[in-house]
Specification:
This protein is of the alpha+beta class. It is built from four helices and seven strands, in the order βααβββαβαββ. Bound molecules: coenzyme A (COA).
Length: about 160
């Protein structure tokens, strides 16, 4: 059976709202996550925990017409290491409309407002598109992380200072 997320229309200019995630987004987010990161996705239980975590900033992009979540960005605040962009994803039919950039902007804004000195992230060396939105938002590479995602799967550690 095909995933409901793959049945989304391919809108030219979707009307998107941005807000913090709620528990009633759980089903949508779980489908989105499994579609964007097959085999490496957060479980429904983990997503639920992040939504309820007061130290997490969990932004979602909602298609106003379809009334469903089509993207998210999640920042987790680690006590020792500080805030980290844990994940960001946009449903495939909605990519290329600036939604990923906007979600990143929201994450940067709320992290900065929390008083943190920086925001960190890791990105696959192969994910050119993700790297480009991070660079455009002012993130700089500070370290290479060989085999970070497994043998031969290298990552870049990036950071934005406030
Ligand atoms: C990365 C991701 C979140 C971007 O979301 P998006 O809504 O498509 O991104 P935007 O439309 O805001 O911006 C895309 C930018 O990348 C650029 N871009 C697109 N393809 C590119 C490529 N192959 N190489 C470099 N840049 C690229 C575009 O030109 C655009 O920049 P512009 O607005 O200046 O033209 C989305 O592709 C995604 O969910 N990918 C799968 C999950 C993932 O890899 N997440 C990140 C790692 S955790």
């Amino acid at each position: 059976m095909s995933s409901p997320i793959l049945q989304f229309p391919s809108p030219r200019a979707p009307a998107i709202r941005y807000r913090l995630a709620r528990l009633d987004d759980l089903e949508n987010l779980t489908v989105l996550e499994s579609t964007c990161f097959p085999g490496n996705d957060m479980t429904k239980r983990q997503i639920r925990r992040h939504i309820l975590n007061p130290l997490a900033h969990f932004w979602v992009a909602v298609d106003s017409g379809q009334r469903r979540v089509v993207g998210y960005s999640l920042v987790l605040h680690h006590q020792r290491r500080g805030p980290r962009l844990y994940s960001i994803a946009v449903a495939a039919p909605y990519r290329g409309h600036g939604i990923g950039k906007k979600l990143l902007q929201k994450s940067v804004m709320t992290t900065k407002a929390s008083g943190a000195p920086h925001l960190m992230l890791e990105v696959s060396q192969k994910s050119r598109k993700a790297q480009s939105i991070y660079r455009d938002a002012g993130f700089l590479v500070w370290k290479k992380a060989p085999d970070y995602y497994g043998a031969g799967l290298h990552a870049l550690k990036m950071m934005k200072h406030f």
